[in-house]
Design brief:
The complex is a heterodimer of chains A (277) and B (275). Chain A contains 14 helices and no strands. Chain A is an all-alpha fold and 277 residues long. In chain B, helix 8 packs antiparallel against helix 11. The chains are: A mainly alpha (277), B mainly alpha (275). At the A-B interface, helix 1, helix 2, helix 4, helix 5 and helix 6 of A face helix 1, helix 3, helix 4, helix 5 and helix 6 of B.
């Protein structure tokens, strides 16, 4: 078996490509995380302390964390609600790839510009208020409310939700739907018992892609929600760039990293179980 | 009966199309809203008063903005070129690791920067650069973009490497090719579509990034996204609209370019390996 021996030989010979790549990992993946953990153990005067963590578990920060999770949950739920039917209908269209490209295209536009557009649309004299006035409801304060924050975030994240769901739907064997229908299942039952369970991996991937960034948004909160909504991301930005309290900022970052890892592990494990079961 | 079913099919088809069209309308409306008002002589994002190119003139006359656009492009091209090289090395390295545990560990480390929120990447890089003593500005922004683009290139190149049959390498070696020859004449041509796709992805990530740059850019150095953010915080100015129209057109050109490269990459392998 010549190829087997050669494989073993190349295994023994040094893997030179690893050197630059490992350098990248050490410098930009391991070191930054280690530094964040290290900094979270120092207060603003540079003294070693656990007070940042004690501070984090006070009502002020816990309330902020809870509201941050609540907003991220709302954003994820609404994105899924809009994106799932859209992805499903996309798989039924004739020129799938073209439609898909059209869905992705807006996500290539810098999200700051899209957020900025909503400053005009939701503004006091903007398009939405003009419509509301002609309908007879009258002017409303839309900008700087929870509604506008959630709406704009959902708008930004929809393509990221559509993509994985679309891929999961495409992978599904269409004859399974026919089988369910032949066996007398209604459309709703087919969806609930066949289509949705088979595309759950795509839904999970989409929720991951939306929930984690939604926890840490900060430019949308600043531009659209004024300072009404403070997410974990806003707090980190505030501590690092405004109050210069890097220790506290790093503590929140450590918390966010832990949560992120938990989410990844939880969704990952379930996938494994599915394969086994 | 058949007719009734057809009619129902028809109405459902229409209903589903309406839903898709509404989603598309909402996705595109803000972008076109921005573009429309970039021609407004009224000076605000409401009450369209008349057509003007004044804002475009303002954009083209703004030398500061021109320098910032240049900065952005230089950072994007440099960082994606360098990260493509590093990323190809990374993919080759991962592919050569045979032991499952090591390989999965490498892949997990690779993906950390892809799944991390921007704020955390930005904050941790800010700490890193201050610790090492790199002055915030061009170098720090370039390094940050390089760092977060590498895993994307790895992810794009690795499947291509895996898809390549190892017998090709064996054949080349049997025919007397040196290691370098195998790399440059067999492996690299084969994974070229993946390399291009990775480069383009890195380019778009770099052009699109705001949060990471916002953390590691010091005073006096700025990219387009950061500049737009600071201008938008001061309120509406229609030169941003004009600028975003130009960016939108540029993006479309990029997308079309990417589309065609992808299409070329989908040619059956082997037809363009050797020249």
């Amino acid at each position: 078996m010549p190829s087997r021996t050669r494989l073993r030989m190349s295994d023994k010979s040094r893997n030179w490509y690893l050197i630059p790549y490992t350098a990248w990992i050490v410098l930009f993946v391991v070191a930054p995380i280690a530094l964040v953990v290290y900094y979270s153990l120092f207060d603003i005067e540079g003294k070693f302390t656990f007070s940042n963590y004690a501070h984090f578990f006070t009502p002020v920060y816990l309330r902020m964390t809870l509201s941050s999770f609540w907003y991220a949950f709302l954003i994820t739920a609404f994105s899924l609600l809009v994106a799932y039917p859209a992805a499903y209908l996309l798989t039924r269209t004739k020129h799938k790839q073209l439609w898909l490209l059209l869905i992705i295209l807006p996500s290539w536009i810098n999200l700051l510009l899209k957020t900025y557009a909503f400053l005009g649309i939701f503004g006091t004299y903007g398009f939405v208020n003009a419509v509301l006035e002609t309908v007879g409801i009258g002017k409303q304060q839309i900008l700087f409310t929870d509604f506008s924050f959630v709406f704009v975030s959902v708008y930004i994240f929809i393509p990221f939700m559509i993509l994985p769901v679309f891929n999961a739907l495409e992978k599904m064997n269409p004859s399974l739907i026919d089988a369910a229908r032949d066996l007398g299942a209604s459309s709703w039952t087919t969806f609930r018992r066949v289509i949705f369970p088979l595309t759950i991996s795509g839904v999970k991937a989409g929720c991951q892609a939306v929930f984690i960034p939604a926890l840490s948004l900060f430019m949308i909160t600043r531009l659209i929600a004024g300072n009404r909504v403070i997410t974990l991301g806003t707090a980190i930005e505030q501590h690092f760039l405004v109050t210069q309290d890097w220790g506290m900022g790093a503590t929140i970052a450590v918390f966010l990293v832990v949560v992120m890892a938990l989410i990844m592990v939880l969704t990952g494990n379930r996938k494994k179980r599915e394969v086994q079961g | 009966m058949a007719k009734a079913m057809q009619a129902r099919e028809g109405s459902r088809w229409r209903g589903s199309n309406v839903y898709l069209i509404v989603v598309f309308a909402i996705l595109y409306a803000p972008i076109f809203y921005l573009m429309l008002y970039s021609f407004n002589s009224g000076g605000s994002m409401h009450d369209f008063q008349g057509f003007t190119l004044e804002w475009y003139k303002e954009v083209f006359a703004d030398t500061r903005l021109f320098i910032i656009v240049l900065n952005t492009l230089v950072i994007a091209l440099l960082s994606s070129a360098l990260s493509t090289i590093l990323g190809v090395f990374g993919a080759l390295a991962i592919q050569q690791v045979r032991r499952h545990r090591h390989r999965n560990a490498l892949l997990a480390l690779n993906n950390v920067l892809i799944v991390s929120p921007d704020v955390i990447i930005g904050a941790s890089f800010l700490i890193l650069f201050t610790m090492i003593g790199i002055k915030l500005g061009f170098v720090s922004v370039l390094l940050a973009h390089l760092a977060f683009s590498v895993p994307i290139v790895v992810i794009m190149v690795l499947p291509k490497l895996e898809e390549m049959s190892p017998t090709w390498i064996d054949a080349a070696r049997d025919l007397g090719a040196s290691r370098l020859d195998v790399l440059t004449k067999v492996v690299l041509p084969y994974i070229r579509p993946g390399i291009f796709a990775g480069f383009f992805m890195a380019l778009t990530y770099s052009l699109d990034d705001f949060a990471v740059t916002f953390f590691v850019t010091g005073n006096g150095y700025s990219t387009l996204a950061v500049e737009i953010y600071s201008r938008a915080r001061q309120g509406i100015s229609l030169s941003i609209n004009a600028l975003s129209t130009l960016i939108f057109l540029f993006t479309i050109v990029l997308v079309i370019g990417y589309y065609f490269i992808n299409k070329r990459g989908n040619r059956p392998p082997g037809t363009e390996v050797q020249r």
